[in-house]
């Protein structure tokens, strides 16, 4: 009998395992695919690897500022980046495997199904079955790509983001991306910088159409996409497509016709929750239902990450895993607090948000006042020759405390934690403004974005 | 009669001016040299410009990971970097000048001397004199390079860091740097990456010999310097030198002889405090004495920045300027709090510290426990192919609250503010560990550096 069985070793499962091992629990892991889950193998980590490449291609033109030049143009070879992406995630996967091996943690390779509140049946790829027992179970089985309407992925012409990461070793000439959300915008930028002509079709009227992304961000990103030559179609769907002579003829709802080599589907993800035969409750969308302590309707069975209805982000899964572990280990139960989840995406810009934006605050009936500052005059950004971008900080109008903020530009995905910590600290605009930041640093954008509110306007 | 006269328009003076203008004060500025002070023209900003170049040269070898290659080797031309450095700081200087012009702020070009508690006499370069009157005065005249013993800068063979930034348009073959402190280590790295053979002579037994720099950091940096081919001599001084055939023959106290093209003096700075004829009090080292409200012995005359005895950092000057302005504007006086000043330096690594290190805590009688994590396993660092470096977080042993930390590696100068805000928040190791950071981000090093203390050891 194990103390804990973890089904699915993505970010949530991994975090739970690390904590359990440190607490001396006897654990077992069930994983049907590669260690590290979708995040490590097909999403967060490989996209940021490719993003580094894309961003470096974009930055080649600033090297000359520093007296660095080459004879002739750069040679760009995506297939080399792909191989090295494999090496990078292979290294991380191996570190994980080595750790589990050193700690003698059994990893059951196969599909895990909960057949009793303390039993998991594992079926491996040869259909051999094994049953293991545990006092507690954590379900961290993640999510799988959604599809829409008549568009059926075939892994060849119509591919999902997972197909992309698993198999696309070289890039075609033209790609139509269905969905201008996070994954769509990230892969569009990567493909664009590696030489692909990219078209995006988006059902809504903007890029990154999500509540936590202010329209101001979508507009700023769109301007850049246009400059990069990425073509976007909004309020549009794919009406029909036909595969002919290794090309896809596409008809859009706005009347446009295109010929592309591949269609990339990035229309969101759905929970991978078909994991039991004991009646674990799910909601209408298939998410496993959990209570405030992340317990399912069986109190010894917890669920964390994409498989429950909370933000589908790796760090949310990790956070929930810590909460679940605390509840498994202690009698006094704790609940997750989702108010300060940083969000970031790496596309033509690094974009990050935390807390409430003005639209979200308005919905909650909070009057806001906001401060803005462009990177143009930030000395560190000038030194790095990367002055595109801006910051907006959102304050409660009545007491001037900071309630949210977003950053578009260099370092956004790290700087966002400073905003998060300032919200946590209940900083007023004056405190944000007077806090001591290193000079010169990108963090000084906080000083200037809060100046008007903290001290008064200059003009 | 002005409301405020600001003598010296470096970071302190500039910050005071910005706040004063927002508060509607009638101000005048006295500046004998370029707007922006030493920081903008000869220190913080140009060094980070050159650092970006040096770092980009170092990073050229990772481009291939992402399928980016060139025909042949890179051509490195320092003089182009120098010209563009001039353009970058010129742009920032001009922004500053335009702002002052738009706000119709008189800028008196010349040497300012306080001749009465409300009067400043300005002598311009033609020896013409002018006297202006102000209700309040802020002295923000900064500092000038120190020299040592028998080594007399001549601007040609023996140069200061200011000579370097003002005049060194191309680099010689061999340079001896006197002083392995911040400026010495920053310029040594820059010159090394731009092809210079660099020797460092340091009186103490390590690089960056300062209380806020843990020996662990000095050691880590030294290992890198050796790898880069920078030669260091510790516990050593320059005994003698002779200029002969456009070369300098140098004799060191350890018996070594060298032949170099230039000697760069970077042995610290001293206050530029000879600014009055009314008996403003100074200490034994020439720093202007101020009380807890940053007032001199004349209550309407304040002093901020390098000219007073507080850490010689641009952001400290800016912070002090805000405090001085608050005290000028309000009856209720406030005092600066120096406990959370971030420090950063850009040399072969980005290095940053805040709060107390273990050595400093011990001196204060605080028992500590610390957590460490190398960049090696940080997924974002792996994605960026920049995995050198580490973090150490220092906690109070008794209650496990965070009291300090330092980072060596990518993003250190920004991430350090997160530590600062966590100290401000009085976070325990558990709170540092459970805080939600974006995945993947460099900020996740905080999760892992606090794991042992928050949850328990893995091995």
Automatic annotation (TrEMBL), chains A, B:
Q: List the disulfide bonds.
A: 39-44
Name the SUPFAM superfamilies for this protein: FAD/NAD(P)-binding domain, FAD/NAD-linked reductases, dimerisation (C-terminal) domain
> What does the Swiss-Prot or TrEMBL cofactor note state?
Binds 1 FAD per subunit.
Q: Where does FAD bind?
A: 48, 112, 141-143, 306, 312-315
Gene3D superfamilies, per this entry? 3.30.390.30, FAD/NAD(P)-binding domain
Write the protein's name. Dihydrolipoyl dehydrogenase
Please state what class of enzyme this protein is.
oxidoreductase
Query: Which residues does UniProt mark as catalytic?
Result: 439
Which NCBIfam families does the UniProt entry name for this protein? lipoamide_DH
Record bears the keyword Metal-binding: no
What the record says about family reads: Belongs to the class-I pyridine nucleotide-disulfide oxidoreductase family.
Domain called FAD/NAD(P)-binding: residue spans: 2-321
Q: Which residues form the signal peptide?
A: none
Q: Which reaction does this chain catalyze?
A: N(6)-[(R)-dihydrolipoyl]-L-lysyl-[protein] + NAD(+) = N(6)-[(R)-lipoyl]-L-lysyl-[protein] + NADH + H(+)
Q: Which GO terms describe its molecular function?
A: dihydrolipoyl dehydrogenase (NADH) activity; flavin adenine dinucleotide binding
Q: Which domain of life is it from?
A: Bacteria
Residue positions binding NAD(+): 179-186, 202, 268
Instruction: Recite the other comments.
Output: The active site is a redox-active disulfide bond.
* Organism listed in the record: Hydrogenothermus marinus
Provide the protein's localization.
Answer: Cytoplasm
């Amino acid at each position: 009998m194990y103390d804990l069985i973890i089904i699915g070793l993505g970010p949530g499962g991994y975090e739970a395992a690390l904590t359990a091992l440190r607490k001396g629990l006897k654990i077992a892991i069930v994983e049907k695919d590669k260690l590290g889950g979708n995040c490590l193998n097909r999403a967060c980590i490989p996209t940021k690897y490719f993003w580094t490449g894309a961003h470096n291609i974009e930055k080649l033109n600033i090297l000359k500022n520093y007296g660095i030049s080459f004879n002739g143009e750069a040679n760009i070879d995506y297939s080399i980046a792909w191989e090295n992406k494999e090496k990078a995630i292979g290294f991380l996967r191996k570190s994980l495997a080595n750790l589990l091996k050193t700690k003698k943690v059994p990893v059951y390779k196969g599909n895990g199904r909960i057949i009793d509140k303390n039993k998991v049946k594992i079926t491996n790829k040869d259909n051999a079955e094994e049953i293991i027992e545990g006092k507690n179970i954590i379900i961290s089985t993640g999510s799988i790509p959604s599809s829409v309407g008549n568009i059926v992925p075939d892994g060849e012409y119509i591919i999902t983001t997972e197909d992309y990461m698993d198999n696309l070793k070289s890039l075609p000439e033209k790609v139509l991306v269905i969905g201008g959300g996070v994954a769509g915008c990230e892969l569009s930028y990567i493909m664009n910088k590696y030489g692909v002509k990219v078209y995006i079709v988006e059902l809504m009227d903007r890029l990154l159409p999500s509540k936590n992304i202010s329209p101001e961000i979508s507009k700023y990103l769109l301007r850049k996409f246009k400059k990069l030559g990425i073509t976007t179609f909004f309020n549009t769907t794919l009406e029909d497509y036909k595969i002919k002579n290794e090309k896809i003829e596409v008809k859009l709802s706005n009347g446009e016709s295109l010929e592309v080599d591949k269609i990339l589907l990035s229309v969101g993800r759905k929970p991978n929750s078909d994991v039991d035969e004991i009646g674990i409750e799910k909601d209408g969308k298939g998410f496993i239902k959990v209570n405030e302590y992340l317990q399912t309707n069986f109190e010894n069975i917890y669920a964390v990450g994409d498989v429950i209805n909370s933000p589908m982000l790796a760090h949310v899964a990790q956070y929930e895993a810590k909460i679940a572990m605390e509840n498994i280990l202690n009698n006094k139960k704790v609940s997750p607090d989702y108010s300060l989840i940083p969000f970031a995406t790496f596309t033509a810009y690094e974009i990050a948000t935390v807390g409430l934006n003005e639209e979200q605050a308005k919905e909650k009936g909070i009057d806001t006042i906001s401060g803005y500052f462009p990177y143009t005059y930030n000395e560190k950004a000038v030194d790095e020759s990367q002055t595109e971008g801006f910051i907006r900080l959102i304050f409660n109008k009545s007491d001037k405390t900071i309630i949210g903020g977003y950053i578009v530009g260099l370092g956004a995905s790290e700087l966002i934690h400073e905003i998060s910590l300032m919200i946590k600290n209940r900083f007023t605009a004056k405190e944000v403004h007077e806090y001591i930041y290193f000079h010169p640093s990108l963090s000084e954008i906080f000083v200037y974005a809060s100046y008007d509110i903290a001290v008064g306007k200059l003009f």
